[in-house]
Automatic annotation (TrEMBL):
Gene3D superfamilies: 3.30.420.40. Its cofactor is K(+); NH4(+). ATP binds at residues 6-13, 124. SUPFAM superfamilies: Actin-like ATPase domain (SSF53067). Signal peptide: none annotated. It comes from Marinobacter segnicrescens. K(+) binds at residue 121. The active site is at residue 101. One of its GO terms (biological process) is coenzyme A biosynthetic process. This is Type III pantothenate kinase. One of its GO terms (molecular function) is metal ion binding. Belongs to the type III pantothenate kinase family. Homodimer. One of its GO terms (cellular component) is cytoplasm.
Protein backbone atom coordinates (compact mmCIF):
# COMPACT_ATOMS: atom_id res chain seq x y z
CA UNK A 1 0.00 0.00 0.00
CA UNK A 2 1.11 3.56 -0.69
CA UNK A 3 1.16 6.34 1.85
CA UNK A 4 0.42 9.64 0.07
CA UNK A 5 1.02 13.07 1.65
CA UNK A 6 0.00 16.57 0.60
CA UNK A 7 1.91 19.02 2.80
CA UNK A 8 0.26 22.42 2.32
CA UNK A 9 1.21 25.57 4.19
CA UNK A 10 -1.69 25.18 6.66
CA UNK A 11 -2.20 21.45 6.94
CA UNK A 12 -0.64 18.13 6.03
CA UNK A 13 -3.19 15.75 4.56
CA UNK A 14 -2.32 12.05 4.16
CA UNK A 15 -4.00 8.88 2.97
CA UNK A 16 -3.01 5.24 2.98
CA UNK A 17 -4.29 3.85 -0.31
CA UNK A 18 -4.62 0.29 -1.50
CA UNK A 19 -4.91 1.16 -5.21
CA UNK A 20 -8.08 3.32 -5.29
CA UNK A 21 -9.26 2.37 -1.79
CA UNK A 22 -8.53 4.77 1.05
CA UNK A 23 -7.62 2.50 3.96
CA UNK A 24 -6.68 5.15 6.51
CA UNK A 25 -6.30 8.95 6.47
CA UNK A 26 -5.39 11.90 8.64
CA UNK A 27 -4.64 15.60 8.77
CA UNK A 28 -2.56 17.80 11.06
CA UNK A 29 -0.85 21.15 11.03
CA UNK A 30 2.68 19.98 11.86
CA UNK A 31 5.13 17.23 10.88
CA UNK A 32 5.30 15.71 14.36
CA UNK A 33 4.93 12.11 15.56
CA UNK A 34 1.21 12.74 16.16
CA UNK A 35 0.63 13.33 12.45
CA UNK A 36 0.01 9.61 11.94
CA UNK A 37 -2.10 8.94 15.05
CA UNK A 38 -4.73 7.12 12.97
CA UNK A 39 -2.18 4.52 11.78
CA UNK A 40 -1.43 1.38 13.80
CA UNK A 41 1.55 -1.03 13.68
CA UNK A 42 -0.30 -3.50 11.48
CA UNK A 43 -1.01 -0.81 8.88
CA UNK A 44 2.57 0.49 8.96
CA UNK A 45 3.88 -2.99 8.02
CA UNK A 46 1.69 -2.84 4.90
CA UNK A 47 3.15 0.44 3.61
CA UNK A 48 5.58 -0.23 0.77
CA UNK A 49 6.11 3.29 -0.55
CA UNK A 50 5.68 6.89 0.62
CA UNK A 51 4.93 9.62 -1.96
CA UNK A 52 4.97 13.27 -0.90
CA UNK A 53 3.88 16.53 -2.49
CA UNK A 54 5.05 19.49 -0.41
CA UNK A 55 5.07 23.26 -0.66
CA UNK A 56 6.61 23.66 2.80
CA UNK A 57 10.17 24.78 3.60
CA UNK A 58 13.27 22.62 3.27
CA UNK A 59 13.53 22.25 7.07
CA UNK A 60 9.86 21.21 7.25
CA UNK A 61 10.52 18.73 4.43
CA UNK A 62 13.36 17.17 6.45
CA UNK A 63 11.23 17.09 9.61
CA UNK A 64 8.52 15.27 7.66
CA UNK A 65 10.99 12.61 6.54
CA UNK A 66 12.12 12.17 10.17
CA UNK A 67 8.50 11.77 11.32
CA UNK A 68 7.94 9.07 8.69
CA UNK A 69 11.21 7.27 9.47
CA UNK A 70 10.01 6.82 13.06
CA UNK A 71 7.45 4.38 11.62
CA UNK A 72 8.80 2.87 8.42
CA UNK A 73 12.03 2.39 6.45
CA UNK A 74 10.38 1.97 3.03
CA UNK A 75 11.41 4.40 0.26
CA UNK A 76 10.16 7.98 0.69
CA UNK A 77 9.98 10.02 -2.51
CA UNK A 78 9.09 13.65 -3.14
CA UNK A 79 7.24 14.57 -6.31
CA UNK A 80 7.75 18.05 -7.80
CA UNK A 81 6.35 19.94 -10.74
CA UNK A 82 7.55 18.43 -14.02
CA UNK A 83 7.71 20.01 -17.49
CA UNK A 84 4.98 17.57 -18.56
CA UNK A 85 2.96 14.50 -17.60
CA UNK A 86 1.41 12.77 -20.60
CA UNK A 87 -0.41 15.48 -22.56
CA UNK A 88 -0.36 17.94 -19.66
CA UNK A 89 2.37 20.58 -20.19
CA UNK A 90 3.43 23.10 -17.54
CA UNK A 91 3.34 26.77 -18.59
CA UNK A 92 6.36 27.72 -16.48
CA UNK A 93 9.70 28.02 -18.24
CA UNK A 94 11.13 26.75 -14.96
CA UNK A 95 8.54 24.17 -13.83
CA UNK A 96 10.35 23.41 -10.57
CA UNK A 97 9.40 26.95 -9.42
CA UNK A 98 5.69 26.10 -9.57
CA UNK A 99 4.11 24.69 -6.42
CA UNK A 100 3.93 20.90 -6.58
CA UNK A 101 0.38 21.06 -5.19
CA UNK A 102 -0.74 23.07 -8.23
CA UNK A 103 0.88 20.57 -10.58
CA UNK A 104 -0.63 17.47 -8.97
CA UNK A 105 -4.05 19.13 -8.75
CA UNK A 106 -3.81 19.81 -12.50
CA UNK A 107 -2.71 16.21 -13.20
CA UNK A 108 -5.82 14.96 -11.38
CA UNK A 109 -8.17 17.48 -13.04
CA UNK A 110 -6.80 16.63 -16.49
CA UNK A 111 -7.38 12.93 -15.78
CA UNK A 112 -11.02 13.69 -14.90
CA UNK A 113 -11.92 16.07 -17.72
CA UNK A 114 -9.36 15.12 -20.40
CA UNK A 115 -10.08 18.54 -21.85
CA UNK A 116 -9.96 22.25 -21.19
CA UNK A 117 -10.66 23.11 -17.55
CA UNK A 118 -9.92 25.49 -14.67
CA UNK A 119 -8.44 24.27 -11.39
CA UNK A 120 -8.99 26.33 -8.26
CA UNK A 121 -7.28 25.39 -4.99
CA UNK A 122 -8.54 27.56 -2.12
CA UNK A 123 -6.00 26.75 0.59
CA UNK A 124 -3.55 29.02 2.46
CA UNK A 125 -3.14 30.69 -0.89
CA UNK A 126 -5.79 30.54 -3.59
CA UNK A 127 -4.47 29.34 -6.92
CA UNK A 128 -6.37 29.33 -10.21
CA UNK A 129 -4.89 27.51 -13.21
CA UNK A 130 -6.15 27.13 -16.77
CA UNK A 131 -5.56 24.10 -18.97
CA UNK A 132 -6.51 24.19 -22.66
CA UNK A 133 -8.11 21.42 -24.71
CA UNK A 134 -4.73 19.95 -25.70
CA UNK A 135 -3.44 19.77 -22.14
CA UNK A 136 -1.32 22.90 -22.31
CA UNK A 137 -1.26 24.78 -19.00
CA UNK A 138 -2.02 28.35 -20.01
CA UNK A 139 -1.00 29.89 -16.68
CA UNK A 140 -2.67 30.92 -13.47
CA UNK A 141 -3.03 33.21 -10.49
CA UNK A 142 -1.80 33.11 -6.88
CA UNK A 143 -3.82 35.09 -4.33
CA UNK A 144 -3.88 35.17 -0.54
CA UNK A 145 -6.39 32.72 0.93
CA UNK A 146 -9.00 33.47 3.56
CA UNK A 147 -6.78 32.94 6.62
CA UNK A 148 -3.90 34.86 5.04
CA UNK A 149 -6.21 37.82 4.38
CA UNK A 150 -7.42 37.75 7.98
CA UNK A 151 -3.81 37.43 9.23
CA UNK A 152 -2.75 40.41 7.12
CA UNK A 153 -5.55 42.57 8.54
CA UNK A 154 -4.91 41.61 12.13
CA UNK A 155 -1.13 41.88 11.91
CA UNK A 156 -0.74 44.98 9.73
CA UNK A 157 -3.40 47.24 11.23
CA UNK A 158 -3.68 48.60 14.76
CA UNK A 159 -7.42 48.85 15.26
CA UNK A 160 -9.01 46.18 13.09
CA UNK A 161 -9.75 43.94 16.07
CA UNK A 162 -11.85 40.83 15.50
CA UNK A 163 -12.38 37.20 16.48
CA UNK A 164 -12.13 34.47 13.85
CA UNK A 165 -15.30 32.59 13.06
CA UNK A 166 -14.59 30.26 10.17
CA UNK A 167 -18.22 29.23 9.81
CA UNK A 168 -19.63 32.71 9.20
CA UNK A 169 -20.66 32.71 5.53
CA UNK A 170 -22.55 36.01 5.31
CA UNK A 171 -21.64 38.72 2.79
CA UNK A 172 -23.99 41.43 4.09
CA UNK A 173 -22.35 44.80 4.90
CA UNK A 174 -20.99 44.50 8.45
CA UNK A 175 -21.94 46.66 11.42
CA UNK A 176 -19.09 45.64 13.70
CA UNK A 177 -15.36 45.34 12.94
CA UNK A 178 -15.62 41.56 13.03
CA UNK A 179 -18.54 41.49 10.60
CA UNK A 180 -16.88 44.01 8.28
CA UNK A 181 -13.74 41.88 8.09
CA UNK A 182 -15.30 38.41 7.91
CA UNK A 183 -18.13 39.37 5.60
CA UNK A 184 -15.68 41.40 3.51
CA UNK A 185 -13.38 38.44 2.98
CA UNK A 186 -16.38 36.25 2.13
CA UNK A 187 -17.53 38.93 -0.31
CA UNK A 188 -14.12 38.88 -2.03
CA UNK A 189 -14.07 35.07 -2.30
CA UNK A 190 -17.61 35.17 -3.66
CA UNK A 191 -16.67 37.89 -6.15
CA UNK A 192 -13.80 35.75 -7.35
CA UNK A 193 -16.14 32.80 -7.87
CA UNK A 194 -18.73 34.98 -9.65
CA UNK A 195 -16.06 36.45 -11.95
CA UNK A 196 -14.78 32.96 -12.70
CA UNK A 197 -18.31 31.69 -13.33
CA UNK A 198 -19.05 34.61 -15.65
CA UNK A 199 -15.88 34.22 -17.74
CA UNK A 200 -15.53 30.46 -17.82
CA UNK A 201 -17.10 28.13 -20.31
CA UNK A 202 -14.96 25.11 -19.44
CA UNK A 203 -15.41 22.76 -16.44
CA UNK A 204 -14.13 23.96 -13.09
CA UNK A 205 -12.42 21.70 -10.56
CA UNK A 206 -12.38 23.01 -7.00
CA UNK A 207 -10.28 21.87 -4.03
CA UNK A 208 -8.73 23.21 -0.79
CA UNK A 209 -10.02 24.05 2.69
CA UNK A 210 -12.21 26.88 1.37
CA UNK A 211 -13.19 24.88 -1.71
CA UNK A 212 -16.78 24.25 -0.52
CA UNK A 213 -17.37 28.01 -0.18
CA UNK A 214 -16.01 28.67 -3.69
CA UNK A 215 -18.01 25.78 -5.14
CA UNK A 216 -21.24 27.07 -3.58
CA UNK A 217 -20.67 30.62 -4.84
CA UNK A 218 -19.83 29.30 -8.32
CA UNK A 219 -22.90 27.08 -8.41
CA UNK A 220 -25.12 29.99 -7.37
CA UNK A 221 -23.74 32.40 -9.95
CA UNK A 222 -22.53 30.45 -12.98
CA UNK A 223 -24.56 29.04 -15.86
CA UNK A 224 -26.22 25.90 -14.42
CA UNK A 225 -24.82 23.99 -17.41
CA UNK A 226 -21.23 24.77 -16.33
CA UNK A 227 -19.74 21.65 -14.74
CA UNK A 228 -18.32 22.51 -11.30
CA UNK A 229 -16.80 19.70 -9.33
CA UNK A 230 -15.54 19.72 -5.74
CA UNK A 231 -12.73 17.27 -5.10
CA UNK A 232 -11.18 17.64 -1.63
CA UNK A 233 -8.41 15.07 -2.33
CA UNK A 234 -7.43 16.44 -5.74
CA UNK A 235 -3.71 16.87 -4.94
CA UNK A 236 -3.49 13.34 -3.48
CA UNK A 237 -5.33 11.96 -6.54
CA UNK A 238 -2.77 13.60 -8.84
CA UNK A 239 0.08 12.39 -6.66
CA UNK A 240 -1.28 8.82 -6.77
CA UNK A 241 -1.34 9.03 -10.54
CA UNK A 242 2.18 10.39 -10.91
CA UNK A 243 3.53 7.95 -8.31
CA UNK A 244 1.75 5.24 -10.30
CA UNK A 245 -0.20 3.71 -7.44
N1 LIG B 1 -9.98 23.17 10.20
C1 LIG B 1 -9.38 24.07 9.43
N2 LIG B 1 -8.10 24.41 9.66
C2 LIG B 1 -7.46 25.31 8.88
N3 LIG B 1 -8.04 25.91 7.83
C3 LIG B 1 -9.32 25.61 7.54
C4 LIG B 1 -10.05 24.67 8.32
N4 LIG B 1 -11.29 24.57 7.78
C5 LIG B 1 -11.33 25.39 6.72
N5 LIG B 1 -10.16 26.05 6.59
C6 LIG B 1 -9.85 27.01 5.54
O1 LIG B 1 -8.99 26.35 4.66
C7 LIG B 1 -7.89 27.18 4.27
C8 LIG B 1 -6.67 26.30 4.29
O2 LIG B 1 -6.92 25.25 3.38
P1 LIG B 1 -5.97 23.99 3.22
O3 LIG B 1 -6.44 23.32 1.99
O4 LIG B 1 -5.88 23.22 4.45
O5 LIG B 1 -4.59 24.73 2.96
P2 LIG B 1 -3.14 24.22 2.58
O6 LIG B 1 -3.28 23.29 1.41
O7 LIG B 1 -2.43 25.47 2.24
O8 LIG B 1 -2.56 23.53 3.77
C9 LIG B 1 -7.84 28.34 5.25
O9 LIG B 1 -7.73 29.55 4.57
C10 LIG B 1 -9.16 28.28 6.02
O10 LIG B 1 -10.00 29.39 5.70
C1 LIG C 1 0.96 29.03 -4.17
C2 LIG C 1 1.21 28.06 -3.02
C3 LIG C 1 1.73 28.84 -1.83
C4 LIG C 1 -0.12 27.38 -2.65
O1 LIG C 1 0.10 26.56 -1.52
P1 LIG C 1 -1.00 26.22 -0.43
O2 LIG C 1 -1.92 27.37 -0.33
O3 LIG C 1 -1.76 25.02 -0.97
O4 LIG C 1 -0.29 25.90 0.82
C5 LIG C 1 2.22 26.94 -3.47
O5 LIG C 1 1.73 26.32 -4.62
C6 LIG C 1 3.59 27.48 -3.69
O6 LIG C 1 4.37 27.65 -2.77
N1 LIG C 1 3.95 27.76 -4.98
C7 LIG C 1 5.24 28.22 -5.37
C8 LIG C 1 5.14 29.39 -6.30
C9 LIG C 1 4.41 29.08 -7.61
O7 LIG C 1 3.55 28.18 -7.69
O8 LIG C 1 4.72 29.79 -8.60
K1 LIG D 1 -3.57 26.40 -2.52
Amino acid sequence: MKLLLDAGNSRIKWQLRDRADIVCSGVDVAETAGLFREMDDRLWTQVDFVAICTVRSESAREALVRAIKLHTQVPVRFFWTEPRFGDLVCAYENPSAMGADRWHAMVAAWEVFKGACVVIDAGSAITVDWIDASGRHEGGYILPGKNLMLDALSQKTARVLFQREQTLASVSPGQTTGECVLHGVNWLLRALAIELGRKTTVPVMVTGGDGPYIKKALSESADPALPVRLSPDLVLDGLAQVANC
